[in-house]
Every structure is written in structure tokens, then in C-alpha cells.
Amino acid sequence: MSWKSHIVRKSLADVEPYRPGKPISEVQRELGLQSAIRLCSNENPWPLPEKVLEAVRASSEEICRYPDPASYRLKRAIAMKWGRSPSEVIVGAGTEGILYSLFQSIIDEGDEVAYAVPTYPMYGLAAAAAGAKRIEIRTEWDGGGSCIDRLADACGPRTKALVICNPNNPTGTIMNRADLTALANSLNGRETLLILDEAYAEYVEDPKFASGIDLFDQLGNVVMIRTFSKIYGLAALRVGYAIAPKPVVETYLKVRKVFEVNSIAQNAALAALSETAYIQEVRERTLAERERMSNALRDMGIHVQPTQTNFIILDFPNARTVFENLLMEGIIVRLGDDLGFPGHLRVTVGLPEENDLFLQGLGKVLKRIAGR
Ligand code: PMP
Fold it and tell me: Is the distance from the beta carbon of residue 120 to the nearest atom of ligand 1 less than 6 Å?
């Protein structure tokens, strides 16, 4: 065996790196395009409120100093928002940063992390990075409760965490209150944390949705993760948070990267947290645009799945061909194959002018493909 195959971690042999949505600059460079639009990463594209921009400007004057490792002010504001103690709050570098450190802090050799697929690929990657065995449970994600027993049954004595993405990326569906409660109850008393990734919760309309915070209050073996990357519009700053049981927070603090949340991110997130009118407005505009796009897509004869998020799932048996043709038009969407969801494209609801460009471009592409 050469030193090269000897030196790398064997448990990572079957791990594929994360395939992110392409940056605009990369698409322009590769395809020689003057312009491109990015509807592949479910960001909030609306302009940020002035107070948040002001916080960014003010904090940028302090960048020669290390950030506050405790994120003291932000942590207190988050604790207040959810009626919890700051000792139950984790502030980290986005959902991604939190998951990596969280798994590292709970996984012992031989432990497992389970998650329902198709879902956000980061759960499997963070689990693999922590050396956990990955248990993937295939679910229909159709809003039906049929998968609850299977999810609970998949969790054995070595399963340290079951991750549920609610609403789920890429399907856009929710696990409703009754199912979530049943699942949480069946894990209660076992040694499995129920981790709820609620990155898209602010967009949900369905009254049957329940946040993990309600379960946290009742049960305790629950971690709720939220991010500032979506409706709060701070994706580039890498900041998110979790509400977690105190012992979990304490252990987490032993392995997390101490200065991973920079001061610009902390202060922008703090400012964004109190911009409730802005959040409400972004939500309404996004939902209205989503409705407009969905109707236009249905008029084009495309099957659009119901969604509780800021993205739309389109059914295309030839999704890869449509995806590649859209790229050539400078329209970046997400290929379902990269998310374990072949036969679909995921399109973020963008600004109205971006959505118009997408609809026009898709019409053109579909005609071109049909003419072949
Ligand atoms: N969770 C899910 C389910 C997501 O789709 C995304 C965005 N890709 C995130 C979290 C955001 O991750 P982060 O907070 O690390 O930006």
C-alpha cells in the first residue's frame, strides 16, 4: 500500500465532498457569459435593512480584534427570543459549523447518526467527519405519518442523534406536529438526541407545523438549529444558532472553534434579530413570488410540488438536460441528483426580475429540448 492510501482516513473512502450550487463568477468564467442569475442556494436576495448594514459597517472597524468567543450579546438576544437561558444556546458558524462541532462533541467510536433521506447532504458529511456510522432512512416526505415508526425503529442503542430537516430540503415538505411529537415521544427516555434543522421555518404557512422549541420545553432530548443564512439574509457571514440541553452545550464548547463566529457576523445577526417587520415583509414577498412562479410553471405544463419554503421543486425526468441548458442561459438552479433527489430541479424564489428571467429562460430551454 502506498503511503498516500495509508495516510488518509479509511472511513472517508466512500464519502463524496459536498457539491454546492455554482457561484455566478464560476458560471460566467466557464461559459463565457456576461451575466448570470443564481437561484440555487435558497438565499434571501432582498436588500438588507439599513440597521443591519450599519452594524456591518461599524463592526468592520474592529476587525483587528478577535471576536467575542462567547457571542455574549447575540446569545442573550437569542435566549430572550425563545424564552430560554443563555446556557442553552449555541452560536456557531451557520448550521454547518454547529453540526460539525455538535457531532464531534457527542460521537464516540461506534456511535451512529441517523437521518431521513432525501435531505440536506450536510448531515451525512458532518457525521462522517465526526467518525460516526451513518444511518440513512428513506422516507416519502409526503407529509404522511407512515415513516415515523421506521425512523424510531432505525435508532438503536448506538444512535446518538436522529436529524430531521423541518421543513425538509430538498422536498419542501414538513413533518407535522402530530408526527413530530410521536417521533420525539418514542425517542424520549432513549439515549438519542432529536436534532431539528429549521433553516426554513420562517417561511412555513402550514398551521400543522411545530417548531422544535415546543418539544424542547416538553421533553429535553431535542436540539433546534436555526440559521441567519436564509430569511435573515446573512448567508455570507456564516452564523447560526441552536437551542440545546445544557450538558450538550457544555460538551459542545469543548470542541467548537473558539473564534469561528466573527464580530461582523455577531453584530449583523444581533441587528437582524430585531428586524421583525423586515422579516415579515421578506416572507410575504417571497411567498407571493413563489405563488406567481408556481402558477406560471403550471401554465407551462410543469409539475410543481407543494412547498413550505423559499424554493420550488419541479419534476423533470430529464432534469440534468434541463439543468445544463439553463446553465448555458446563465441560470443557475440546483440539480436534484446532487441532493439525492433525481428527476427534480430545485429553484430558489429570487427577486421578481430574476424569477422572470428564470421563467423566460426555462420556456426557451424546454422548446429547444423538445425540438431536438
Ligand atoms: N439547513 C438546510 C436544510 C439548508 O438547506 C441550508 C442551506 N443550504 C442550511 C441549513 C444553511 O446552512 P448554513 O446555516 O450553514 O448556512
Answer: yes
